[in-house]
Specification:
By secondary structure, this protein is of the alpha/beta class. It has a single domain, classed as Arginase, Chain A, CATH 3.40.800. It has helices at about 25-35, 50-55, 60-65, 90-105, 140-150, 165-170, 215-230, 260-275, 290-305, and strands spanning about 5, 40-45, 75, 85, 115, 155-160, 180-185, 205-210, 235-240, 280-285. Helix 1 (about 25-35) packs across helix 9, helix 4 crosses helix 5 and helix 7 packs parallel to helix 8 (about 260-275).
């Protein structure tokens, strides 16, 4: 079986204005690079989805607020960093629809695993709050979709973005069906993610790392991720795949190389092979140096391809 690539042209309509680091080029460079290996993938577009899956993850009040916030022209701010424009409405919906499309594709055996190349990202979006470039929490909607539609009881979300996924942690802090694991630079934006934040059911594992952490140091720390996964025995893996821990990224100070994202992904898939049978969906979060992002996503997807 092949790897699914879920994407859509609407990502380019989410205009964040001049000079904003979360720009459409991020997805464009990924897609253009993956087209060189087009025969290895099954390409799929996001599906339309029932809005109640948003209301499970976010409050209905918040969803209504967002739906009414998209401007008719120009720009609007949801917070100091999170800018929206008229085209953001469809892009935001498609980002959520991509992870639902990917999950359905994996569970219907259309492809073995999948990567969603979409924007805006999602892991900073809390139940009732947009922040950090994020509007809806795409990966959290995916986890709740697995629970609600497919009756999954053990889902692991692995977040290797350099920033702590405060939104995902907030949404699942007291949900024993979801294990949230984050490796991130600390102390750093958004300020959360200490190792004392463990979740109501010991279902949160934060691995805070200092600025300057090297590849070797990171991979040593990642052994704690693998140990926790083996204890949890997940039925399905969701990656919050941010690539801003790369040494060339302008928004953080970890020192990973592009090849490290292959290693992170490979080690994860090996550790859970007997539990989830390779059922993995990954969705793009951060990553703001275009060349590093292009290389790192290719390495990540190479590991997904190997486990087909």
């Amino acid at each position: 079986m092949k790897t699914g690539i879920i994407t859509t042209e609407t990502y380019a309509s989410h205009d964040t204005g001049p000079g904003h680091p979360e720009r459409s080029d991020r997805v464009t460079v990924i897609i253009n690079n993956l087209k060189k290996f087009k025969k290895k993938f099954i390409w799929k577009k996001p599906v339309n989805f029932e809005r109640n899956f948003l209301n499970i993850t976010h409050s209905k009040k918040y969803v209504d607020l967002i739906e009414n916030s998209f401007p008719k022209k120009g720009f609007s701010n949801l917070d100091g960093d999170t800018i929206i424009s008229p085209g953001s409405k469809e892009a935001t919906s498609d980002a959520v629809g991509s992870i639902i499309s990917a999950i359905d594709g994996v569970l219907k055996n259309e492809f073995k695993n999948a990567f969603c190349a979409v924007r805006p990202p999602g892991h900073h979006s809390e139940r009732q709050k947009a922040m950090g470039f994020c509007i809806y929490n795409n990966v959290a909607v995916g986890a709740n979709y697995l629970i609600t539609k497919y009756n999954y009881k053990k889902i692991a979300i692995i977040d290797f973005d350099v920033h702590h996924g405060n939104g995902t942690q907030d949404i699942f802090y007291d949900n024993k069906k979801v294990l949230y694991i984050s490796t991130h630079q600390y102390p750093y934006y958004p300020g959360s993610g200490s190792d004392k934040e463990k979740g109501k059911y010991n279902n949160v594992l934060n691995i805070p790392l200092p600025a300057g952490t090297t590849s070797t140091e990171y991979l040593d720390a990642y052994e704690h991720v693998l140990k926790k996964l083996k204890e949890f025995k997940p039925q399905f893996i969701l990656f919050s795949a941010g690539f801003d821990a790369h040494k060339d990224d302008p928004l953080a100070q970890l020192q990973l190389t592009s090849k490290d994202f292959y290693e992170i992904t490979k080690r994860t898939l090996i550790s859970v092979k007997n539990d989830c049978n390779g059922k993995v969906v990954s969705i793009l979060e951060g990553g703001y140096d275009l060349n590093a992002l292009k290389e790192s996503t290719e390495q990540h997807i190479n590991a997904l391809l190997e486990f087909n």
